Amino acid sequence: MRSVSVLGATGSIGESAFDLLMRAGGPEAYRTVALTGAANVGRLAEMARALRAEIAVTALPEKLGALREALAGSGIETAAGPEAVAEAAARPADWTLSAIIGAAGLPPGLEVLRRGGTLALANKESLVAAGRLVMGESQRNGAVILPVDSEHSAIFQSLHGENLDSVEHVTITASGGAFRDWPLERLARATVAEASSHPNWAMGQRITIDSASMFNKALEVIEAHEFFGLSCDQIKVLVHPQSIVHAMVSHRDGGSIAHLGAPDMRHAIGYALHWPQRAALPVPALDLAALGSLTFTAPDEARWPALRLARQVIRAGGAAGAVLNAAKEQALDDFIAGRIGFMDMAPAVERALDACAREPGFASSPGDLATVLEWDAQARRLAACTSGAA
Ligand code: NDP
Ligand code: MG
Question: Given this model, what pLDDT does residue 201 score?
């Protein structure tokens, strides 16, 4: 029986993975080693019981009592704290999904790679913050990384059987998020509630706001650079409001291979779960006649400065990815808390990038986790709003 672990089980991606595992037969089909979560220990305990997990871990030490209580009598081990999440990730499992949100996903993801495991990677932040380190650990230990971000899964699938040298460029699509059609002058007053609703995808709140600001696409451009080794100029973005074409690979011979599908993350998660096979998945079939038309436009960088910052980060290399990722997380925290406006996020990130670029060592890619975390902490300090309410 295959063994699996899900890091970030209680989130949006984690719930989709849980759905797939349960539909496939749950504990009769898979041996679940570890499930991890953070605040939502009630749901974590339900999932752990349903899958008969060996261990359930919350990242929050203050939640350990509640988790223990919820799992009393189940025989399921419990633990708490970031180190316990990393230790759970280090336990052997045939397939581990990294679906933690933010840079917190990096240390446990590295543990999976160090044990030579198969890492289904939704946590794009680890590649953005530490691409060189993550890919290096993977190669050194014979680990396998399977992209779960829908665009990167789409590229991965489109590249199957192809030679990367023949690729002219790839295109990833963006829905344009909540504010695609808003007049520019209205964006500065956009509220957290308005930014938290996505036209096509049901996702966690943070990535939904990142979709509205296009920081999600900025992270994905960097993710494509780190994972596939493509140059900045080889990664193009198109706004595609229907979210049906997820990515397209264009070859030097003039042919392009696109990946299409309904906007449902269970496709990309399920593809990674069953790879290298394909299995039937509970994903709506594509009905192009019902859709009628698919449209594409070039993104407007005045509306979405995040895309310009992504290219700046790829060209700078070194610690720029770690700085952009952390500064973005800080700016997002500040926006959600009402300390800054929607259009203040990109300038906060740019401020941190500019200041860090003057620091010694910025041009070198961080070679270990401690160095990534130092840049991360510095970037958060520099990006943080210090002037009270917006
Ligand atoms: P959610 O916010 O819905 O879930 C995040 C998960 O991480 C939850 O299980 C949460 O626990 C846990 N968590 C939160 N903080 C910490 C922490 N400090 N340490 C350990 N665990 C923590 O996020 P999503 O599911 O939307 O996204 C997860 C990842 O997948 C992100 O990297 C995102 O970019 C990526 N992704 C998401 C897509 C989507 O459709 N949602 C699409 C493509 C990529 P709890 O809820 O119990 O507090
Ligand atoms: Mg994506």
Answer: 83
The whole-angstrom separation of Cα 360 and Cα 174 is 35
Which of 36, 100, 215, 373 is the best mutation target for the ligand 1 pocket, counting ligand atoms within 8 Å of the beta carbon and taking the most? 100
- Per-domain boundaries in the chain: 2-147, 152-291, 317-383
pLDDT of residue 224: 98
Note if the pTM is more than 0.90.
yes
CATH 3.60.21.70 holds for 2-147: no
**Helix pair angle (369-383, 320-336), 10° resolution:** 40
- Is 258 a residue whose pLDDT tops 70? yes
Per-residue pLDDT at 188 exceeds 70? yes
* CA of 61 relative to ligand 2 center, distance in Å: 31
85 CA closest ligand 1 atom index: 20
CATH topology of domain 317-383: Rna Polymerase Sigma Factor; Chain: A (1.10.1740)
Task: Strand 235-239: give its sheet, edge to edge.
Answer: 235-239, 167-174, 245-251, 256-260
The reported pLDDT for the residue numbered 387 is: 66
